[in-house]
UniProtKB/TrEMBL annotation:
The keyword Transmembrane applies. This is Membrane protein. The chain crosses the membrane at residues 44-65, 85-109, 115-132, 139-160, 180-205, 217-240, 260-284, 296-315, 321-337. It comes from Cohnella abietis. InterPro entries: YkvI-like (IPR038728). It comes from the Bacteria. Keywords: Membrane, Transmembrane, Transmembrane helix. The lineage of its organism: Bacteria, Bacillati, Bacillota, Bacilli, Bacillales.
Length: 355
């Protein structure tokens, strides 16, 4: 029972790490899947397979390597020198992703709470800093609470959508974009999200260690992500193209369902943004602390301030520009880790300790 409970926690953290600002708001689903019309569900299934397979490999490798941060995993995959440079690049990418998370919170405050964008940024930064003082236990706890609520509400949203006469749009809507762009999309989406999830999955795998728990958690998390993608795609497809005008499309859908449901959903979107931001900043802090030996609270403060500055560019422009570009950069990482067979053949050699 304890193994199963831990597996569920691992799966929920996996989901909570991927389901961030872009996903929970509906922007990511629209960018990578919904705009490709009736091909969307097939692209989501392909992406789900990658989440299960590569998510398990990342955590199992981290456990075998006893990796303290994602740099240890990258050194194993790419070699000592190249791995160090890949980690530098991922540091920049993760900062960009966290800026998107923070900008998503700001947009949520301005679009749905009638508060200023800057208020959203500052409140989210402060709450993130306070929670990070509790470490990995806080990340496990908050995802155990938030992710089931998000899954439940997404299920309700799907049921409501299916009652709508235009719900069949997700099957019949045509794809007017390039087939090459469509079939590249799930690879970009999976590569980007999995490489970014390293910041959490590596210390999580290293902390849990049990391969059965980690494999089971990867299956639960990967399938959960896929089902939530399908649910979001169905809800958005039924309301295209009008829903595309919103910065937070899922919030626009929730508004149709009444005031109370709208406020609940806005709260859940914020919590999903918040959990991903907390998890990523935690992983970045571990990475920088291993290199600099500086105080984790100082590093966390600096990281949040950099995200605050980048967040001034706005949520929509940041997501639509950075995410596809980061997905292309992550394809090489996805290729290397998918080829690694050490888990089934022999124990990998741990990387040299950082100098």
């Amino acid at each position: 029972m304890k193994q199963w409970a831990t597996s569920i926690q691992v799966g929920l953290v996996f989901i909570g790490t991927v389901v961030g600002a872009g996903f929970a708001s509906g922007r990511e689903v629209m960018q990578f899947f919904t705009r490709f019309g009736h091909w969307g569900p097939y692209l989501i299934i392909l992406s789900t397979l990658f989440f299960v397979w590569i998510g398990a490999k990342v955590m199992l490798l981290a456990a075998q390597l006893q990796a303290k941060s994602y740099e240890d995993l990258n050194k194993y995959l790419f070699g000592e020198q190249v791995g160090r440079w890949v980690s530098h690049l991922m540091l920049i990418v993760l900062l960009g992703v966290n800026a998107v998370m923070l900008a998503g919170a700001g947009s949520l405050f301005s679009e749905h709470l009638n508060l200023s964008y800057q208020t959203g940024l500052i409140v989210t930064m402060f709450a993130c800093f306070l929670l990070l003082r509790k470490g990995m236990n806080a990340i496990l706890t908050i995802n155990t609470f938030v992710v089931p609520l998000m899954i439940g509400f997404t299920t309700f949203l799907v049921i409501e959508t299916l009652r709508n006469p235009i719900s069949s749009n997700w099957i019949s809507s045509p794809n007017e974009l390039s087939p090459w762009a469509a079939w590249l999309s799930p690879f970009l989406y999976a590569a980007f999200n999995l490489s970014m999830s390293q910041a959490v999955l590596v210390p999580l795998g290293s902390a849990i260690k049990d391969p059965i728990v980690l494999k089971r958690g990867a299956w639960m998390g990967g399938i959960g992500i896929g089902l939530m993608l399908l649910a979001g795609h169905l809800a958005l497809s039924a309301r295209m193209p009008g829903i595309a005008q919103f910065e937070i499309p899922m919030g626009g859908i929730a508004r149709e369902l009444g005031a109370w449901l709208h406020w609940i959903f806005v709260f859940l979107i914020f919590m999903e943004i918040f959990t991903t931001l907390v998890a990523d900043i935690y992983g970045l802090t571990l990475q920088l602390q291993e290199r600099t030996k500086a105080s984790p609270w100082l590093l966390t403060s600096i990281l949040l301030f950099i995200c605050f500055l980048a967040g001034q560019l706005g949520f929509g422009p940041l997501l639509s520009t950075l995410y596809p570009m980061f997905g292309l950069l992550s394809l090489g990482w996805l290729f290397l880790i998918s080829r690694d067979r050490s888990r089934s053949t022999s124990q990998p050699t741990p990387p040299n300790p950082p100098t």
